[in-house]
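User: Structure tokens for this complex, please. No commentary.
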Amino acid sequence: DPALIYDLGGKFDKSFNEAAFNGAERWAEETGGSYRDIELQSEAQREQALRRFAEAGFNPIITTGFSMSTPIDNVAGDYPDTKFVTIDGYVDPEEHPNVKSILFAEEQGSYLVGMLAAMASETNTVSFVGGMDIPLIRAFACGYAQGAKAVSDDIEVIANMTGTTPAAWNDPVKGSELTNAQISQGSDVVFAAAGGTGIGVLQTAADKDILSIGVDSNQNYLHPGQVLTSMLKRVDVATYDAMQAGADLETGVETLALEDNGVGYALDDNNRELITEEMQAAVDEARQKIIDGEIEVHDYRSDDSCPALSF
Amino acid sequence: MDYNTLLQVLDSTVRLATPLLLACLAGLFSERSGVIDIGLEGKMLIAAFFSAAIAAMTGSVWLGLGAGIVSAVLLSLVHGLASITFRGNQLISGVAINFLAAGLTVLIAQDWFGQGGRTPSLIGGGRWGNITLPFADTLSGVPVIGPLYAQLISGHSLLVYVGFLMVPLTWWVLFRTRFGLRLRAVGESPEAVDTAGVSVVGLRYAAVAICGLLCGIAGSYLATGLQAGFVKDMTAGRGYIALAALIFAKWRPWHALGACLLFGLLQAVALRYQNIDLGGITIPVQVMDALPYILTVVILAGFVGKAIPPRAGGEPYVKER
Amino acid sequence: MDRMPAWADAVLVPLISLLLAALLSALVILGIGENPIEALKLMVEGALLRSAGWGYTLYYATNFIFTGLAVSVAFHAKLFNIGGEGQAMIGGLGVALVCLYLPWPHWSLALVAASVAAALFGAVWAFIPAYLQAKRGSHIVITTIMFNFIAAALLNYLLVNVMKPEGQQDPATAIFPAATHLPTFQDMFATEAMPLFRGSPGNVTFFLAIAACLVVWALIWRTRLGYEIRALGHSESAARYAGISPVRTIVIAMLISGALAGLMGVNTAMGEAERLVMNATEGAGFIGIAVALMGRNHPIGVFLAAILFGFLYQGGAELALWTNIPRELIVVIQALVILFTGALDNMVRMPLERVFAARRRAARKTPAE
Amino acid sequence: MTDTAPAIELKGISKSFGPVQANKDISIRVMPGTIHGIIGENGAGKSTLMSILYGFYSADAGEIWVKGEKTVIPDSQAAIRAGIGMVFQHFKLVQNFTVLENVILGAEDGGLLKPSLSKARGVLKQLAEEYELSVDPDTQVQHLSVGHQQRVEILKALYRQADILILDEPTGVLTPAEADHLFRILDNLRAEGKTIILITHKLREIMEITDTVSVMRRGEMTATVKTAETSPEELAELMVGRKVLLRVDKAPAKPKEALLEIENLRHLDGQGVEKLRNISLEVRAGEIVGLAGVAGNGQSELLNVLGGYADATGTVRVNGREIPLSGRGCDGMARRAAGIGHVPEDRQREGLIMPYSAWENTVFGYHHGPETGSGLLMDNAAIRKEAAAKMERFDVRPPDPSLAAKNFSGGNQQKIVLAREIERNPDVLLIGQPTRGVDIGAIEFIHEQIVRLRDMGKAILLVSVELDEIFALSDRIAVMFDGRIMGVRDAGETDQRELGLLMAGITEDPGGDAYEAVDAAMDQKDHREAARHG
Ligand SMILES: Nc1ncnc2c1ncn2[C@@H]1O[C@H](COP(=O)(O)OP(=O)(O)OP(=O)(O)O)[C@@H](O)[C@H]1O
Ligand SMILES: Nc1ncnc2c1ncn2[C@@H]1O[C@H](COP(=O)(O)OP(=O)(O)OP(=O)(O)O)[C@@H](O)[C@H]1O
Ligand SMILES: [Mg+2]
Ligand SMILES: [Mg+2]
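Assistant:
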């Protein structure tokens, strides 16, 4: 059986971890298989969970969050017959041939929702609330800003991070206050890439009658008609695929981008009214151009800098 | 900083100060009666959970408030049992209550809602709406005063006004009523109260229950006013800050208002200005995060001077000679 | 009043309190629709019936011994040190600096240096609250809590902005050089035939903790300093009369307390993670309070209570692994243990005293007649 | 007698605290309109009995009859309802409340304070005139002298319309003038028909004011006699069970060189108030200098400064060598090294660590000395052995070094402190309130020890609020008032009246009623104190 280990934000963060959970559930439903999962609560538990699952014969062991890459690095060698998956993390494939690292081109998806935000904005000001201030989240912000600037050259993009510790993934109160501050600076579309903190962001945006953009999972349903769209990061698909492959999982490093449908934006009944046909056309055109390489979206992580936004 | 920004920061200050203020007044009642309470945090937390949970299940924010208050009062009574009836260590009882609330809230939330220790998001009648005071719209055009009234004074949830009204009420109860006289006396000299033929235990339980009531309101405000639901550990140290404010205020209601507004302001500023640029030197966000705590220490050490706590605080009352 | 025998006070009261806490915990487990017996079995199997389980239990216990001793030394001077958390964090920082920036030929030397640094850093972090309490009367409970928050912010800043290697996502230092890696129980006791303690983090720091118990015992009950610390704790006015400086004694007691809490950093940073991570202490500073109380502020008691809490931690992790019981159950159990052994102990003691008094009266009567 | 019912009648009251039987089958009748004295050794059970009467403790057996009716008194409220008021040995006042607030506490009319306060103001004024019980109703209690605080306690009882008043060791902390005033108040109350029960260790007071006196011993009521038909000697014997010497037997002093020289000593307290103003005094080898004064006039501060735990300026020489008065080298341990022994005024708060065993307490303050062992660790076995010997020499009962200090009675605790300080043969012994609250049997022993040390050629500075004790022990007497030494007299050449006036800061004898002058002086002092705190 496969096993799934969620990062500290918890299984029901309505975004990142929950996407993995949804993927696993879908797999279980479709195949009738069963899996075991655990929400981590402490640092020393990371290795422990990996080892205990490996010893108990679970395979593959899928983990979410970059914090798991170091523990996997420590453990993988002891269990050569077990496959480990680190979503969002990176483990050297040379050193540990039984590990699969799955990364996403978040900047590309963010670029698209950035465009949508800019097109929806009436104040020509959009904003971003990040969770923990790490390169990954900066990559979100950077892609978002690039997308927005592609639509409107002089648009103002306000970006704030919730904090610098893992607690920043789960602080809706602060997310809400940050959103308030951004609204007062003129923002009328806010993109939350902040895990559980985003719930506060989306809530405040809905309360204050501005648009918001969800992240990772499709969060459009949280406030129908008030969430412009969600930047999808198909952690669910990645999880599903890994479980589907089972013990025969191909290892190595994989980056899921627009062309793999690994990232994208969400369109459903909840936001149909908000996205006009022109908007959709513009975004779909950009999507194709990115896939074709005509538009290059800068990845913050490639050189720790962003042309469209300063942090 | 322009006037509008100032108003927004102050507006945020009021929102953030309200739970502190309610908790601080809660602590004030308890400590004035001689029962030290570092379990404010836990009581707020449990109230936040139950108010959100019941509000989510019934769709009524009032029922939520009731549930929050009941749960906080129950925890208060546990504290009372430990520190009044069984003369246990009040600090330890407080620590235990904080742990208990942190664990129970998530445990029950998971059991009831299965959303990882969170309640469902509250909608409609499950949350406190913001009250627009009369003439707010009409007056908002008036320069200076208008925006002040419309933005800062008007437009908060009912519990904010309750919190602020609690200040004069607390003062009046404490210094103008028989109950207040006895309450202050029992925190200073329980033996005087006892020999005067008044029940020390009864008074202290009453104080502790009031403390629970106010913590209950504070927690409800957090989860159903400020936020739209409960998330784990959502009090995030506010109980401790309230305690510091209480010492800073020297256990006096009006001073408590000032102290809580100050701490609220610090938090609002830290939220709003994450990286302050002072002529080339950027103050890191961590400094802003730590600022309320650093300032608490500085204030305690530098300005409070001799904050004389209620004399019998922390001491269980044992009849002797 | 009726005194009951010392053994009853030291053993019977905590034991009954513990039972009450366990009973209530069982009710809580029932309340969330799980089976308490099964849960207990899982916990015992996972924590005590496997050597790796012991490795985890003792790893956690090591943390709690240090923080428990820290709290109890301060308690003897009647100081309530809630700052173990922050002191341990900063202690970990000391360990990281020593391990990362100094070259070490052998782990034993690194351990000595890291222990000194951890103790020193922890002591420094306890110094300011101690000084403010001694000189300005600033309530140490409040200041140490504040210093926990400040320590977190400081560590956060250092990890995020200074010590984190380029390109790394999580706020942590680089892995310490291999020469500083401490031998784990696995390294020490496992053989080809008997792969004991496999993969568990229990390490040589555990023995350091035992040594700390002995040193603290001698310090408190055999040295003049311990005599003074206890005297101050019982009566400040008497201490001043005797020429014991309250300021000096408060500061020294807190320095020792902070140093002990800081030593916990050796276990987490050097023994387990082999790097410094943001949230390594994970509430051990607070657990230390419960451990000290349950252990009646005596090193032997602290040791036993630390093992108990280590068991709870490890057992709780096992529960989370194999059942759907959230790990917060363990927080609730801890809370109940603290409540019953620390704050509601008189609930057990008062009736017990009555029982002993009745027995004594009966015993007195018989020979007289 | 037969037609008036007793104000109080207790029948067969028993009470035990675990193994200690504090009261055994006690019966007593107190007639209305009388003052009834109760005496007995420490721990005889006097306070316990009165606490039962006031509903503080409940008796294991027995009945209480008030004014001819059987009354159940489960709590203080019931006692108050039955017309009983009590003034405890340690006052039960809220220090930072005003007199008025203290008086109405628990006896308010209605939920709001205002009406109660104005009513109480009127009643207090009336009571003040009726019974010479004047205190400023708006002063905070903490700014009142002990004597005035006691008046507040009496006012509290009268405000609740008590006609039976219990006073537990009321004069223990009063000056002679204050005690005189108290007795006049009690006289007035008796004249109004009130009944008073008075507990005291002082036989003089018993003889002076009571109508009847009961003696308690080891929890039992051993005798009740009419005061007019007994004598102090008889009472002492009834109390202790043997003949007691009520005077101190000592030879005239043969003072030699000055061992303790104090010049221009000044000391400021934490608030910057000058508590010692230019004190100069010397104590010679082989003499006892008594320091008399109303509590709070600087005697305690002087002992603290000399004992090394309060800073001061000026010069102090011990055995000719100057000792530092602040900074390093100014602490209790340094003082002991310099040859100053110190029996503190409050044995429980200062002299002993109550939870420590007796043997641990016998090195308290000397724990860095050679007798505690030479190595890094303390030599507990040796200390314990030495302690056992000391306790035997000082007749500490029980002679068990392992027993915690808190488990010894007051008198025996005092003996432990004395043993520790005297056995080291200090050149100078500072001794504060050596016999406060101690029964006459133990007083006899303690006084003997002090005189013995004097006769060994040591200098002794004695502070006591008991003028009797000062007279009995001292060779010279210095009187302190408001931080100054008002005068030094030879013990043989002065009297109570002169000292009483000096203690109130009056150096010229005004003639006539000295007590009134003293009282006026005390009132003024209270006002100054209150004014200083705003
Ligand atoms: N609260 C208590 N708990 C246990 N024992 C007590 C308590 N109070 C008094 N006792 C015991 O009761 C006995 C009588 O004490 P009590 O205080 O009545 O004596 P007393 O005659 O007032 O003494 P003193 O003259 O010192 O005031 C004491 O020996 C003491 O052992
Ligand atoms: N609360 C208590 N618990 C146990 N024993 C007590 C308690 N209070 C008093 N005692 C016992 O009572 C005895 C006498 O104590 P008590 O304090 O009444 O002495 P005392 O002579 O009245 O002291 P003092 O002179 O200070 O008033 C001691 O042996 C002590 O062990
Ligand atoms: Mg008594
Ligand atoms: Mg007594």
